[in-house]
Amino acid sequence: MDANKPISPDGRTYHLQTREGDIAKCCLLVGSPERAEMIAENLFTNARLVGDHRGLKSFTGRAGNVPMSVVTTGMGSASTAIVLPEVVYSGAKRLIRVGSCSTLWREPLPGHSAICTAAVRLDGASENWAPIEYPAVADFRVVNAMVEAAQNLGFPHHVGIGATTTCFNEGQARPDISGYLPPRLLALHEELTRRGVLFYSMEEATLFVWCTTHGTDIWAGAVDAIYGNRRTNEFAVRGEEEAAHIAITAMLILDKRFSL
User: Fold this and answer.
1) Are strands 199-201 and 136-137 parallel, antiparallel or unpaired?
2) What residues contact residue 34 under an 8 Å CB cut-off, 6+ apart?
3) Nearest C-alpha neighbor of 63 from the set 48, 44, 49
C-alpha cells in the first residue's frame, strides 16, 4: 500500500472500505450510521451494504430509476474531510449532506428543514485546502433543486447561511459542564445571530470548500433537520426523514436536468 494514498491490494479505500464504482454518482452524506441505515431501508430500493468500517456504513441502491448511495461521514469536520476523497474516489459526483442542526432564527420549529446556501468557516479542516477568505458555498443548482423539492413535497423549510463549528458545545455557545462559556464565544454567537446566520452544524463548510477546490464537476449541497432552536431553547429529534426526502427528490430533479 502507498502511504500517500492507502488503497488495499483489492482496491478498497482505507476508511470506507469501498472500491471504485461502489458508490453511485448521486450520493447522500450523513453523520450517523443509523441514519444511513434508515435511508437505505426506507427510501431506497434494492439497497446493499458496500462498505462498513469504523462505523462508516455505506449503502448503494436506487431512488426511482436513479442509482443512489448514502455514506456515513461521522461527526464533524475532521471525519468528513477523511471521507470526502474516498467517497469521490469510489464514484460520487453529486453530494448532498442530510444532517441535523440548531437554528439561530426564532421562527423555525424542531422538525423543519434548513437548506444551506453557504457556511461560515469555523470548521478548521477547510483551511487545509484554501485560505480563510475563500468562500464556502453550496452549488447553486443543488440549492435550487432542494428548494424546489421542499416546495413540491410541502415540507416546512428555511433557506440560509450556516455556521460550521469544530465543537458541538462551547463552539456553539453552550456552556461547559461547569456552566462557563468564554466571553469571546458568547460574543461570536451573538454576532452570528445578529447577522442572520440560520443555523449551527459541524460539516457544511468542510463539504463545500473541499468540493469546490477539488474539481468543477463535484456538486455539493446540504439540508438539515432542525433539532434545536437556540432562540426559544426548544429541542426535539425529528425531521430527518423529511430532510432525506428533500435531498432524494432534489437528486431526481438534477438527474432530469443535467447529465452525469
Assistant:
1) unpaired
2) none
3) 44
Q: What is the CATH number of domain 26-251?
A: 3.40.50.1580
CA 224 to CA 164: how far, in whole Å? 12
Catalytic option among 62, 141, 174, 231: 174
- What is the rounded CA–CA span in Å between residue 260 and residue 25? 8
> Which pTM was predicted?
0.97
Q: Each residue of 181-213: pLDDT tens digit?
A: 999 999 999 999 999 999 999 999 999 999 999
DSSP state of 128: G
The answer to whether 12 is a known catalytic residue is no
Q: How far apart are CA 98 and CA 70, in angstroms?
A: 9
Out of 94, 121, 158, 230, pick the active-site residue: 230
Q: Quick check: 224 and 114 in contact, CB under 8 A?
A: yes
Query: Could you give the C-alpha distances from 10 to 6, 18, 23, 24, in angstroms and in order?
Result: 11, 10, 16, 19
Q: Establish whether 86 is a catalytic residue.
A: yes
Question: Of the residues 12, 15, 19, 112, which is catalytic?
Answer: 15
Report pLDDT digits (tens) over 107-160. 999 999 999 999 999 999 999 999 999 999 999 999 999 999 999 999 999 999
- Out of 12, 19, 86, 112, pick the active-site residue: 86
User: Active-site residue 54, yes or no?
Assistant: no
Beta bridge partners of 223: 98, 115
Task: Examine the residue annotation and report whether 242 is marked as an active-site residue of this protein.
Answer: no
